[in-house]
């Protein structure tokens, strides 16, 4: 029963599979991103209150929601590292941290740009914004922790534990707007009806953008993990063969 | 699963659960300071002192906005639909400020009203196009109209 699980943890297997998948993922992302951006910027109707400022949502919401997926991913990878000592899980966790930090930073930045004209301020110390800032610092902390510990195994264990602990912040971010009163509005509820708030003409392009940005995250993570695999497995036979084959092809 | 792995997994689950509970309880205890603003009801209940710098949040009451003719001074009622609070403000209001819209005002209580030094607009989670908004308003008028007519007929008889 556990066989597939351990096969999944083989860096060689991941390298080969991801290599086959990458082109398709890139094509899907390009198509979705193009449709989503053109739709959001040109064809979504202006909001009755916010006017064209609403278009910031089509970047802010996808980036913010995917930044929330990063810590749970790192926590799962962390548990696998701690319990099963799977090398691939630690490589994925290592590569996810900087990407997640960038997503969090972009979510904070686009939020500030949106907040200035609508709320009248770049920043407020409300629960949503503050917990998001804490997530940014936690991710910076994970990156710093890894580079601070010399032994790779000890670094992996420390980062795994910090990721599991840091993931507790994710539900706090998610529900901050419901548990406390904040300047940030609560999550919108999708409505199927054409003539209601947050109807399909608003959310369909948003969903497309969420998928597109998700693919962007996955592709970045795969590319980064592949590099990490080659660096860490450089002494194993399959990587040596791969590089040799690449050299003869190039020559 | 091998016993030593099961043991490790249990320890991790234990740490994560324990920390979640600890953080949850501290956040619950701190919820008053985590809240961004006081509601008019809390102010009416005497939870804030005169001269204490606080934020107050609520909806701008319909028909309560009074603008000065020769200055930026503006007065309006913030309401949470159970209590109202008079807010005075000298300054530029955000574009989204309007009646029926949420606001967060920063300042202090003085003689039963709130002297704001900054007013922020709070927007809700409803997004819609101008056309949809117009259609919704029209539908609401249509619903209100027959009701008013029957009321008028009842008064006439």
Task: For this entry, give a set of tags.
heterodimer; A: 251 residues; mainly alpha; 0% strand; B: 157 residues; alpha+beta; OB fold (Dihydrolipoamide Acetyltransferase, E2P); 3 domains; five-stranded mixed barrel; 27% strand; extended; disordered C terminus
How many domains comprise the coordinates of chain A?
A: 1
- Uncertain runs of chain B are 152-157
Biggest beta-sheet profile of chain B: 5 strands, mixed, barrel
Helix content of chain B: 40-55%
Helix/strand/pairing category of chain A: mainly alpha
Distance between the termini of chain B: 83 Å
Q: Which assembly state applies to the chains in this document?
A: heterodimer
Structure description:
The complex is a heterodimer of chains A (251) and B (157). Chain A has 251 residues and is mostly helical. Chain A has one domain (12-250). Helix content of chain A is 77%, strand content 0%. In chain A, helix 3 (57-84) crosses helix 6 and helix 3 runs parallel beside helix 8. The radius of gyration of chain A is 21 Å and the shape is globular. The N and C termini of chain A lie far apart (45 Å). Mean pLDDT of chain B is 84; it is low at 152-157. The longest helix of chain B has 27 residues, at 3-29. At the A-B interface, helix 3 and helix 6 of A face helix 1, strand 6 and helix 4 of B.
């Amino acid at each position: 029963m556990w066989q597939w699980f351990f096969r999944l943890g083989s860096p060689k297997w991941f390298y080969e599979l991801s290599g086959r998948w990458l082109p398709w993922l890139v094509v899907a992302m390009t198509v979705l991103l193009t449709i989503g951006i053109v739709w959001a910027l040109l064809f979504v109707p202006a909001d009755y209150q916010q006017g064209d400022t609403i278009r910031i949502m089509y970047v802010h919401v996808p980036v913010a929601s995917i930044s929330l997926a990063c810590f749970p991913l790192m926590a799962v990878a962390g548990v696998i590292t701690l319990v099963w000592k799977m090398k691939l899980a630690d490589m994925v966790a290592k590569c996810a941290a900087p990407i997640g930090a960038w997503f969090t930073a972009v979510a904070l930045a686009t939020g500030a740009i949106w907040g200035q004209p609508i709320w009248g301020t770049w920043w407020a110390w409300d629960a949503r914004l503050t917990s998001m800032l804490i997530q940014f610092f936690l991710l910076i902390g994970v990156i710093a922790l890894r580079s601070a510990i010399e032994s790779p195994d000890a670094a992996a264990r420390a980062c795994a534990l910090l990721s599991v602990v840091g993931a507790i912040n994710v539900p706090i971010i998610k529900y901050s707007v419901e548990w406390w009163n904040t300047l940030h509005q609560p999550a919108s509820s999708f409505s199927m009806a054409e003539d209601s708030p947050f109807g399909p003409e608003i959310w369909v392009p948003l969903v497309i953008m969420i998928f597109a940005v998700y693919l962007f995250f996955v592709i970045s993570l795969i590319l980064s993990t592949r590099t990490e695999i080659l660096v860490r497995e450089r002494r194993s036979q399959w990587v040596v063969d791969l590089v040799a084959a690449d050299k003869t092809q190039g020559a | 699963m091998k016993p030593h792995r099961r043991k490790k997994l249990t320890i991790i689950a234990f740490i994560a659960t324990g920390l979640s509970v600890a953080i949850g309880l501290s956040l619950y205890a701190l919820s008053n300071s985590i809240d961004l603003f006081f509601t008019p009801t809390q102010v009416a209940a005497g939870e804030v002192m005169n001269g204490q710098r606080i934020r107050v949040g609520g909806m701008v009451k319909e028909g309560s906005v009074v603008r000065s003719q020769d200055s930026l001074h503006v007065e309006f009622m913030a309401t949470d639909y159970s209590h109202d609070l008079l807010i005075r403000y000298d300054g530029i209001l955000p574009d989204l400020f309007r009646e029926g819209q949420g606001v967060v005002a920063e300042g202090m209580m003085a003689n039963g009203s709130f002297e704001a030094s900054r007013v922020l607009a709070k927007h809700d989670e409803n997004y819609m196009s101008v056309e949809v908004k117009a259609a919704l308003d029209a539908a609401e008028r249509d619903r209100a109209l027959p009701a008013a007519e029957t009321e008028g007929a009842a008064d006439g008889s």
